[in-house]
Amino acid sequence: MALPKLTKLELQVLEAFWQKGACSVREVQETFPEPGRPAYTTVQTVVYRLERKKALRCVKRISNANIFAAAISRNDAQRRLIDELLALLGGRGKLVMAHLVEAGEITLDDVKEAEKALRKPARKDKPQ
Domains of the chain, with CATH numbers? Predict the structure, then answer.
C-alpha cells in the first residue's frame, strides 16, 4: 500500500497517536500546548481525513466517541517525508548531507553508521 502524503498538522496529530496509542479526538487535542492549540473541530477534521487516507483506523466506539489508532508507523511516515524531500531536490541526497554537516546536525558516528548501511546488500522492498 502506498503511504499517503501528509501535512504538517496531520503529522502532529499522528505523533499524538504514536506517543499515546489509541485515543479519542479530545485526547489528541489536549496533547497540543495550550497557547495555539487547534480547535476541537479542527483536530476532528484532521483525524477523519487521516482515517480516509488510511493512516488512522477506528478501533472502538465508546458512547458517541470514536477511539482511533495509528495505522501507519512513525518510521514509515518519516521515510515518506524524506522520499518527498529527495524528490523535490531531484534525488540529490548530497544537498541534504551537506546541509546537515554545515548545520552541525550530523556527527562522525552518524557518517560511520551510514557507511555501514551502504555496505549492506540492497533492501528487498526497494526497487532497483
Answer: 8-70 (1.10.10.10), 91-121 (no CATH)
